[in-house]
Design a protein that fits this description.
Shape: globular
Structural class: alpha/beta
Order of helices and strands: HEHEEEHEEEHEEEEEHE
CATH architecture: 3-Layer(aba) Sandwich
Strand content: 25-35%
CATH class: Alpha Beta
CATH superfamily: Glutaconate Coenzyme A-transferase
Largest sheet: 10 strands, mixed
Strand order of the largest sheet: 4-3-2-1-5-8-10-11-12-13
CATH topology: Glutaconate Coenzyme A-transferase
Helix content: 10-25%
Number of strands: 13
Length: about 220
């Protein structure tokens, strides 16, 4: 089996889902890396649930402002034209359908498009955060995740067994093995990571996986 994609490569592929003029919310983890690969030629406004529209890149050490953070409490920068507002206004923006794309991490996704990404029973968690609102309010939901867990078990399932964040809401999944769409018939493999065969990805997926007639090898540019 080929070497799986890195977190950076997953983020680089997901950046191709971002289009000029989009308002985009990036979740914690791999999704935050997507900002590094959005072309400078695009006009894209990154939104953070804690009240920032126009989030910039992570700051260099000499530019850190401890009062300017994203929803994951990481220090960020703001681009020209950025605006600041209350979290109430931020969630009104999300719930009102004004976010074109959200990119989230996940512990599990199933073939119906259900997602579980906020807690494992028995483990201490801070709360769901904005994920429930994002999966319900964003126009498109893309998941960034590893295809299997540390034990080698698939994270793409016939049915999630962890507490759900949302139901029938995921549109596309980008893993370290390929790109999978959630269709009315279930999972459909549309791109393979370089070096992987469709058969290897099917074997690593714990739900039926249809192969697209236009199956391609993933590209990053």
């Amino acid at each position: 089996m080929a070497e799986k994609l890195t977190r950076e490569q997953i983020a680089q592929r997901i950046a191709k889902e971002v289009h000029d003029g989009f308002t985009v919310n990036l979740g914690i983890g791999i999704p935050t890396l997507v900002a590094n690969y959005i072309p400078n030629s695009m006009s894209v406004m990154l939104q953070s649930e804690n009240g920032l529209l126009g989030m910039g890149s992570f700051p260099t050490e000499d530019k850190v402002d401890a009062d300017l953070i994203n929803a994951g409490k990481q220090t960020v920068t703001a681009v020209p034209g950025a605006s600041f507002f209350s979290s109430a206004d931020s969630f009104a923006m999300i719930r009102g359908g004004h976010v074109d794309l959200t990119v989230l991490g996940a512990m599990q996704v199933d073939h119906k498009g259900d997602i579980a990404n906020w807690m494992i029973p028995g483990k201490l968690v801070k709360g769901m955060g904005g994920a429930m609102d994002l999966v319900a309010g964003a126009k498109r939901v893309v998941v960034a995740m590893q295809h299997t867990d540390k034990k080698g078990q698939s994270k793409l399932l016939e049915a999630c067994d962890l507490p759900l964040t949302g139901q029938s809401c995921v549109n596309r999944i980008v893993t370290d093995m390929g790109v999978i769409d959630v269709t009315a018939e279930g999972f459909e493999l549309i791109e393979t990571a370089p070096g992987f065969t469709a058969e290897e990805i099917i074997e690593s997926t714990a739900a039926p996986l249809k192969i697209s007639k236009d199956l391609k090898t993933m590209s990053f540019s």
